[in-house]
Amino acid sequence: MKTSKSRRPYRIGRSRSGLGLFATQEIPKGRFIVRYTGPLLTNEQADRAENKYLFELNNRWTIDGKSRRNTARYINHSCRPNAEVYFVRHEIKIRARKKIAAGEEIAYDYGKDHWNAYIKDKGCQCPKCREKRAGERKRKRKAGARRAQGKIKAALKTVRRSARTFHGR
Ligand SMILES: [Zn+2]
Fold first, then answer.
1. Which tens digits make up the pLDDT trace of 78-129?
2. Which of 36, 82, 141, 153 is placed for a possible disulfide with 92 were both Cys, Cβ 3.0 to 4.6 Å?
3. Residue 81 C-alpha to ligand 1 middle, in angstroms?
4. Which fold has domain 10-122?
5. pLDDT band at residue 62 under the 50/70/90 scheme
6. Is the distance from CB of 111 to CB of 119 less than 8 angstroms?
7. Contact assessment for residue 61 and residue 54, using Cβ atoms and an 8 Å cutoff
8. pTM listed for this prediction
9. Measured in angstroms, how far is the CA atom of residue 116 from the centroid of ligand 1?
10. Ligand 1 center to 115 CA (angstroms)
11. What's the 131 CA to ligand 1 centre distance in angstroms?
12. DSSP alpha helices (H): ranges in 5-118?
């Protein structure tokens, strides 16, 4: 029986970091979303291949996911992911780690190595890191405001002091 809740609960769409994969309907926690597909390379071959879609399966094999037919390659990284990767034999699959609402961007954690190699320098665009940066900017603004107030107070003191000196004459 076919229902609207059948095969593809997602679409490719515009995201903060280029393209991304977005849920088109609610995806329950634990539900399989998509498979990360591509030719199987040995890890030696993968070391020579230069692309950021290489996904290491185990200590022998890597999947080269650079083909656009591999829809999973559009899934972006998040430090607060709503999806996760799991392995079934020689397959890499992605499932919901919690309930994902319709319209929400699907993201999983790429792991520290990838983050350091490809994401760190250009600034992580995930919600968690954006919130963190916004928080830092706010703190800086507040500190700046406090500094400015301090300067005004100091200036007022000087004015009062010189006024006293003037009247005292
Ligand atoms: Zn992040």
1. 999 999 999 998 899 999 999 999 999 999 999 998 899 889 999 999 999 9
2. 36
3. 9
4. Beta-clip-like (2.170.270)
5. very high
6. no
7. no
8. 0.78
9. 11
10. 9
11. 9
12. 43-48, 112-114
10: β partners = 23
* C-alpha 118 – ligand 1 centre gap (Å): 12
Whether residue 40 contacts residue 63, with contact meaning beta carbons closer than 8 Å, is answered with yes
Ligand 1 centroid–CA 123 distance in Å is 8
**DSSP codes of every residue in the chain:** ---TTSS--EEEEEETTEEEEEESS-B-TT-EEEEE---EEEHHHHHH---TTEEE-SSSEEEE--STT-GGGGPEE-SS-SEEEEEETTEEEEEESS-B-TTPEEEE---HHHIIIIITTT---SHHHHHHHHHHHHHHHHHHHHHHHHHHHHHHHHHHHHHHHHHH-
Distance, in Å, from the CA atom of 166 to the CA atom of 160, rounded to the nearest integer, reads 10
Q: Are 22 and 13 in contact (CB under 8 A)?
A: yes
Structure token digits, residue 25: 């309907």
Measured in whole angstroms, the distance separating CA 49 from the mean position of its chain's CA atoms is 25
